[in-house]
Design a protein that fits this description.
By secondary structure, the protein is mainly beta. The chain contains one helix and 13 strands; from the N terminus they run βββββββββαββββ. The chain is globular.
């Protein structure tokens, strides 16, 4: 689903992002409800940030998080009753505007038309994009996975996250 958002682009750079698990639903600009492996999943666009609510977990990556949020980790694992959660993040920095634009265009093309993906575009730049998509967990029916992308045209950065919520065996 493509959402053209009528709101100012809020985030400024990748290193301003924070991370939190367990926050209640935040005000969203667009929401894509899905179901995967018996879990209800909500993919939520928060300005140029995201929140995913999947079964017993909420994951939020944003600039304006309340106390208790921490800097975006490169890797984090956690156990919830009956579940394991794995999160990873990395930032790609592109050398020039053309390389950045190609990367964002390729992302938008890859997600276009997918019923399990939500892409938000912001006014002022075709490459100010936040996108979320379901991803394979590697074990059918075991849980749910998702990926996100936060594109920052002013710094030519793309923050990419990958998350897994898997039932404990």
């Amino acid at each position: 689903m493509l959402a053209t958002l009528d709101t100012p682009y809020a985030d400024t750079r990748a290193d301003a992002l924070s991370f939190a698990v367990g926050l209640p639903p935040r005000d969203a600009l667009a929401v894509l409800p899905l179901e995967r492996a018996g879990l209800r999943v909500q993919m939520r666009l928060l300005g140029a940030s995201h929140q995913v609510i999947a079964g017993p977990l909420s994951e939020t990556v944003a600039c304006d998080l309340p106390d208790g949020a921490r800097p975006l980790p490169a890797r984090m694992r956690d156990a919830l009753p009956g579940w394991s959660y794995d999160f990873a993040a990395r930032t790609a920095v592109h050398d020039d505007d053309a390389a950045f634009a190609r990367a964002v265009d390729a992302l938008r093309d890859r997600l276009a038309g997918r019923p399990d993906a939500l892409t938000g575009t912001f006014p002022g730049s075709d490459h100010a994009v936040t996108a979320l998509a379901l991803d394979d967990t590697g074990t059918p029916g075991a849980g749910v996975g998702w990926r996100t992308w936060h594109a920052y045209p002013q710094t030519r950065e793309i923050v990419m996250t990958r998350s897994r919520l898997v039932r404990s065996s």
